[in-house]
């Protein structure tokens, strides 16, 4: 009798939070005190190779327990699946998770449930890449175009992108891929940094970090704006004086403004030559973004980190609402949906500059950008991946930056696995850090 196939045996979840609000890391006009957090999932198997699949979605503190509960609601679709079949066709699970009608009702295909689906699907891709012995970017770039197309859910997309068009793009993308791979391994993928620009930083810290960014080889930085115009003018003036005229400077309002306000505010900052204005208004307001784009040109309009799904990206592109598409590795339904988004961007000729930062988003999204370069767009022109120098030491395979570029990961997987000691320390509320913090708070309360 042949042995039974290896299967997924457990879906373990963790509510992991870091106290970034205490140093104002990550602060912006809409989110003044974020505690960067990960709703983290590990897929365990009974396979002899011992491989696991790691994934997560990013939140900023309170509510992370809701995100973890959403991941746990998907457990029944995952436990018991044959590992070989799952890794050979992650799209099957992706469609099953999206197609659960009772859970779909909570979206559909948006919000907490959709982010949970993304965490689980990304964990499957991590497992598949580990079993293949390749970093995810290499697994995707080397895959047959026909197989990649089968991974995509084209429902609601065919008025903008058909499977046949996607296949044509991917077949064309294979041309020159070997030379691009060599360049990627030698040079890396261009990055920009938001580290100097958090809204809570004073001018001295802004100056110090912007100076360091240029010294480290970054050719673009980003500043958070949107809370106070006079303050934004002063901070942009400081930053532009530090980096000089030849380094791009993007600005990011984090959804703070109405449409007319976004136009006025952006125009008030044009003297500092902003490269793009990011999230100038509600991420759901497609026509608003189009109006802003028409009014503030030549300043570019960028958005996407809070776009719910591939359908929103489709409409942003169809409406001519954006100059720069900023996909997020953990906001939509995982790798499968981001494949669709990358192909939509290629169809419409819009550059992709992924959102990163957060907890582990840099680690994840570098793979998608590198795949795009090798197999879809074929270029890094006007393309950069966001980089923030936060929390990388909690990952087993952290990003590596050299001369303002992401170096290509070489370890198998999606670079998603966190260090066990970090999980033990920062799991909320009973990890060692949070337990000690709670004890200190109680002692202070008693002393008062």
Describe the structure.
This protein is α/β, with parallel strands linked by helices. The chain has two domains: 8-133, Enolase-like, N-terminal domain (Enolase-like, domain 1), CATH 3.30.390; 173-421, TIM Barrel (Alpha-Beta Barrel), CATH 3.20.20.120. It is built from 19 helices and twelve strands. The chain has helices at residues 64-72, 75-78, 83-88, 90-99, 101-104, 111-132, 136-141, 145-150, 163-173, 177-187, 203-215, 229-243, 259-268, 286-296, 310-318, 335-348, 361-376, 420-426, 432-447, and strands at 8-17, 37-45, 53-59, 189-197, 220-224, 248-252, 274-278, 300-303, 324-325, 385-387, 401-402, 405-406. Helix 10 (177-187) runs antiparallel to helix 17 (361-376). It is globular.
Which tags fit this structure?
448 residues, alpha/beta, Enolase-like, domain 1, TIM Barrel, 2 domains, 9-stranded mixed beta sheet, 3-stranded antiparallel beta sheet, 45% helix, 14% strand, globular
Residue stretches low in confidence (pLDDT < 50, at least 5 long) are none
Work out the helix count.
Answer: 19
As for the number of domains, it is 2
Average pLDDT score: 96
Task: Tell me how many strands there are.
Answer: 12
CATH level 3 topology of the largest domain: TIM Barrel
The helix fraction, in percent, is 40-55%
